[in-house]
Design goal:
This protein is mainly α and 539 residues long. It is 67% helix and 5% strand. It is extended and about 95 Å long.
Length: 539
């Protein structure tokens, strides 16, 4: 049970959103482990919340959302605490939101007047909420634009630190203003404010590697959900239309948010059919890029999802799949269905066709080849499997040791050595080349190859396999590389890293580590940090 004063942890708007999340059923699971509560809350994604209690008070907490990264109590935490408080005895005070919601409008207005006359701060808040007329909404939008211009500075680019700061400030400002508009009954103006803020922020040139724009988008999605819930039917339809009319003129990712909002936040057959119509228009207008076009793929996925929502038959969906079968995503869907139905020869023909069409683009050819290998193994077609493994190993860019082992198992004993040498002559990655040599027991060639790499990671990787067989050769290679590394080291951290490798030589014949350490002391007498690190390492 949460302590009675936990609400003081939160900013008012965050507390209000947390309560809305709780009321909307966003708290999906709560586990009380005795002093520790674990819960999951649906927001922009499913976030984990952990709360530690002591004596009924919140002792510590953690949420996985970006807003809470710096320790600021978030709406997901508030939602869980509200859910915990829902188990309190019935005589305890209900949330003030419920109390206010139970008032009829005349009584609420009378109470606001009395509150304003008795409390100057309350009067200021009430006047501020009432002052947001349509004309003043324009000034609020101008303030948003000015905040972003100021953060961008003369060069027009918002750097990482400034991006987080200004978007956080913007999110708070927009949330407060949109909340006040919504509470005063100006649903459309509240909606427009969120849309303007998103287009302005996503239209800026900024370093968004912190994901701050995602936090703003998440906040606006929450506000849209509440605005739609408060809108009469005609206004709700106007919001839906506006998002569809303006997605193409909005900045790229902002436009995607508009489409996502149309799909997720508006419920009903009417909206689904309109989304289907719009998706068809986008599919018709799109010119797919060569290879794998992820934008077009997403449109096809959306179309199928909408068809399923409208109850389309399996045959209708299959006809749509066939229409776009040249697209890799759609081909994968069809192959999956054919395999599930046991229609292996049809699936094979489709995979072979896909591999042939995508041959110049090895990433796709690799994927089709992988599916064919699995199909031939499943159906016991040994000769076809062997041919496909030859393609996968010799013609694809990234063969794997697993493929090589399967090919070896299918090759005649007299044939394999030649195939292996052909493979070693190919452009294999250093890791795979080493693995192949080791798996074939060609340790002398492995030693030559590892030494030729002339780097410590290669020696480290194969030391365990080679040390029992070639201790002196490995010792000499290590000694030369470590000595070279020390010659180029220049600070304490580099010295410590080099000396850590030096200590690995203590197990080699002749203890070259001690000899090397003594030589360094004589060659680099002025490197006090190096001498200190040697001493700490026991030299």
């Amino acid at each position: 049970m949460a302590g009675g004063d936990w609400r003081e942890m939160f900013a008012p708007r965050i507390l209000h959103r947390g309560y809305e999340y709780y009321k909307d059923g966003m708290v999906r699971s709560v586990q009380d482990l005795g002093g520790l509560v674990w819960a999951r809350v649906l927001g922009g994604e499913l976030y984990s919340v952990e709360i530690a209690f002591e004596g009924g008070e919140v002792l510590a907490w953690r949420c996985g959302c970006p807003y809470a990264e710096d320790g600021t109590p978030c709406k997901h935490l508030a939602a869980v605490l509200y859910a915990l408080d829902a188990n309190k005895p019935a005589h305890e005070a209900e949330p003030i939101e419920d109390v206010v919601g139970s008032l009829d409008p005349p009584a609420a207005r009378a109470l606001l007047v009395r509150l304003a006359k008795s409390d100057g701060k309350a009067e200021e808040i009430i006047r501020s909420a009432a002052a947001l007329s349509i004309g003043e909404l324009e000034s609020v939008e101008k303030r948003i634009d000015e905040m972003l211009r100021r953060a961008a500075g003369r060069d027009g680019y918002i750097e990482y630190d400034a991006a987080w700061r200004v978007v956080d400030e913007l999110e708070r400002f927009v949330s407060d203003a949109a909340d006040r508009l919504l509470e005063s009954g100006r649903v459309w103006e509240s909606f427009q404010l969120c849309c303007h803020a998103l287009m302005a922020a996503f239209g800026c040139d900024m370093d968004d590697s912190s994901g701050c724009l995602g936090i703003l988008a998440d906040s606006c999605f929450d506000l849209w959900r509440r605005q739609i819930g408060a809108a009469p039917p005609e206004l709700e339809r106007e919001m839906f239309r506006w998002l569809g009319d303006n997605y193409s003129s909005a900045p790229e990712y902002c436009g995607e948010l508009f489409l996502e909002a149309r799909r997720v936040l508006f419920e009903g057959v009417e909206y689904t059919r309109d989304n289907l119509r719009q998706t068809d228009e986008m599919i018709s207008a799109h010119k797919p890029e060569p290879g794998r076009d992820f934008t077009f793929e997403e449109l096809l996925r959306r179309r199928i999802s909408l068809m399923e929502e409208l109850g389309a038959s399996g045959k209708e969906i299959e006809r749509f799949e066939e229409k776009y079968r040249e697209q890799p995503f759609m081909r994968e869907r069809i192959v999956g269905r054919l395999l599930k139905e046991g229609r292996f020869s049809e699936a094979e023909a489709l995979l072979v066709e896909g591999k042939t069409l995508s041959a110049p683009r090895y990433g796709l050819a690799d994927a089709y080849s992988e599916r064919l290998i699995g199909l031939y193994e499943r159906t016991g077609q040994a000769e076809k499997l062997r041919r496909e493994l030859m393609f996968r190993v010799f013609e694809c860019e990234r063969p794997e040791l697993e493929h090589i082992a399967k090919l070896k198992g299918l090759a005649a004993p007299a044939e394999w050595p030649e195939l292996r040498e052909r493979l070693l002559a190919c452009r294999l990655g250093s890791e795979l080349r080493g693995e192949l040599l080791a798996s074939e027991g060609l340790y002398e060639r492995l030693l030559e190859y590892v030494i030729s790499q002339n780097n410590l990671p290669a020696l480290d990787r194969w030391e365990a396999a080679l040390l029992p067989l070639y201790p002196r050769e490995l010792r000499d290679a290590y000694t030369a590389l470590i000595d070279e590394l020390m010659s180029s080291s220049f600070d304490r951290q580099a010295y410590a890293h080099t000396i850590a490798h030096l200590k690995r030589l203590c197990k080699y014949p002749g203890r070259p580590d001690a000899e090397l350490a003594e030589r360094w002391k004589k060659e680099y007498p002025r490197r006090t940090a190096m001498l200190d690190e040697l001493k700490k390492a026991g030299y």
